Amino acid sequence: MSFSKLTRRGLIKTSAVAGAGLALPTYLRADAHAGYTNAPTGDTVTLGFNVPQTGSYAEEGLDELRAQELAVQHLNGEGDGGMLNTFSSKALKGNGILGKKVTFVTGDTQTKSDAARASAQSMIQKDGAIMINGGSSSGVAVAVQGLCQDSGIIFMAGLTHSNDTTGKDRKRNGFRHFFNAYMSAAALAPVLKNAYGSERRAYHLTADYTWGWTQQESIAAATEAVGWETVNNVLTPLQATDFSAYLAPIQNSGADVLVLNEYGGDMVNSLTQAVQFGLLDKEVNGKKFEIVVPLYSELMAAGAGPNVQGVIGSMNWNWQLQDEGSKAFTKSFGEKYGRPPSNSAHTCYVQTLLYADACERAGTFNPCGVVEALEGFEFDGMGNGPVLYRADDHQCFKDVLVMKGTENPSNEYDTLEIVEVTPRAQVEYDPDHPMFAGGDLGECNPGA
Amino acid sequence: MFGTAKRDTALLIIVAILTLFAPFLLNPFPAGSAMAQFNAGYPDLMQRFVIFGIFAIGFNILFGLTGYLSFGHAAFLGLGSYAVVWMYKLLDYNVIWGLPLAILVSGVFALMIGFISLRRSGIYFSILTLAFAQMMFAISYSDLLGRFFGTTITNGETGLQVYTSDPQILIDSWERVPHLLGLVEMRSTYTLNLGNWSFDFNAGYYFCAVIMILAFYLAIRIFRSPFGMMLRAVKSNQQRMNYTGLNTRPYALAAFVISGMYAGLAGGLMAAMDPLAGAERMQWTASGEVVLMTILGGAGTLIGPVLGAGFIKYFENIFSKINDNVLHSWFAFLPDGIEDFLVVIVHPFVGKGWNLTLGLMFMIVVIFLPGGLVEGGQRIARLFRGKPAKNDAPDGSKTPAE
Fold first, then answer.
1. Which of A143, A205, A229, A434 reaches 20 to 30 Å from A365, CA-CA?
2. A182-315+401-427: what fold?
3. Distance (Å) from the C-alpha of residue B124 to the closest C-alpha of chain A?
């Protein structure tokens, strides 16, 4: 080996170099250029799309990626422009953002907070991304939102439904377009009352993690307000494949409604097994037994197949909406990919456009300018009617859809039908509502 | 020097030089060029390289020396992270409080888990450790402990974060992010621009790198000590040791605790770089990852696990980010038909297919280089030197070479 003859001089030299290396960081502070993190210098601006590409939410993530790619095309003036034509703000001209061509980088969150932060970090530190968008889990959204706050860039959340994202974990640099558990519950309760009456006894199966708890808390409070009784709430472990042990006690509990606060594979499995158990064919207390799934998604409905028929749930957006914005988006998405967009795709698409529009209106990419432009911003033409980005907690307020599994699907994408569009006023709440309390937006952070 | 043999000293110095110059070595391509995609010299990934290096070095002390295959080492990684973040929440952002606690807590848990699991060996040991780790994962993922006591301990799947409402009794007004004794912030980075090249020197990375070099030195000492020899004896034939009247369990337990403490240190450093502790760190996939790292690099060798850790983290972070747009830009010089064809061919192996590429690499290494990447390095070195290895390492048959 070349080092076998280590001389005294060699050793001193090596230690000097090593010592210099060790001492170096002491003299280094964060790069002190004026302005903000990753200020775009050339004629392009880079957006970071951080979605689950592997793991249980990979399907949703890939659909988000499709929508984000479409949004970039529309921002750069390619394709038919999609929702840019229907969006109430006309600041975007199809020449990129602030005259800079939009490029993007992608990463895999793996639906794990750690991996999501690692891939967001690499976008920020290596690729110079000015904003992070996407994701399909509240845990990931909260984790990445915290990172973006610390790094001084904007986070436009994708699919995240937990109250905490804009509740106790709200951040000044983070924005959520998607609705939340409270809004789901507020929209569902009146519809459930009309459909199933006010004398119902509900049994809850809840996925045992943060989202499940906030979802259960919200729906229990809302249904109790219309006269329902909550018989029991049983927490189920994540990624359980066999729910029979949790389903069997329901039949002797005297409950006549089952609320499944589950998502993803858990929802597909629990619903499928509940239907196989024959719960839907039973009559309890002289009433037909019913199942409620508070949060629906097209991809889960497709996974559960015919079992979703007649089951009520809520959604942020659906491609069957007939307003101009939804039609334009569904059309350009369908032309490009040959399938209708999911509601997570819609959220990511809209978030990308909203970010671009905010930069355009603020006249800068500086996160503080963008935050100012987005806070209290009212817009229309992006589906869901008139929408408000509330300044107090960075939550979007808009109409919520109550959905039902289609009884006679006409094609493979026709799995859910719209029962009711609950108006925005009915799902609004106070920013200091107990389910959202304890959060602090903090100051906007422009970074370095 | 340092009480190590010449070969080990040389190895230690090589590792030290490689880690200290990593910002240069990992950024070989000019920023903005097409190949910049393969640069790995940004702070977050460099930190991960050395942190998982520490994790794998520690794991190797157990698996490489005693042959006990633990499938639950990620539990200690998570414990270390929680310990550090709790110190942020209770005291302040100085990492100096949390790291010793991370080592201590994971050591205590390793003692308890090891005491029970080491009653069995082979596959039963692996399954016991896996069971313990999954229990701890489930507890932290749903914050069962926190709910039992009516408070927040792990904050469930969201991960433990620091809030402004936390006590933080030692906090100063300037503290926003983790720092070392107020001297330097972990995230502060100096970017050196040389022509088209750009190199990031990150304080947190150097902090971790120095700790990794110390951890590596400690591992060398353990490998070469009589204690290390004892552990190797456990691996080669535990029964015979028992028959000669030696009680091997304390040795195995000590190795288990040491490697648990290494894992706790690694977890603590993760939280020291990035003030968040997530339950996924404890999941069995994370435990499996460190097994892969060790085997890929070369179990039982000193440098192998560090190489394996770097290899896997590189794939996870670099290959997963190559999307179709990037592919098109690579092959843009080709005629359209060939370009599209090549993109279609390469597409399954990058982006969301990074796991597939990693799996194939792992298969190739395990089939053709059973000794891991280290064996590959040795074969290449032998080719150049043109003589058999045993002249080079007289005791190669007894001590696994590095």
1. A143
2. Rossmann fold (3.40.50)
3. 24
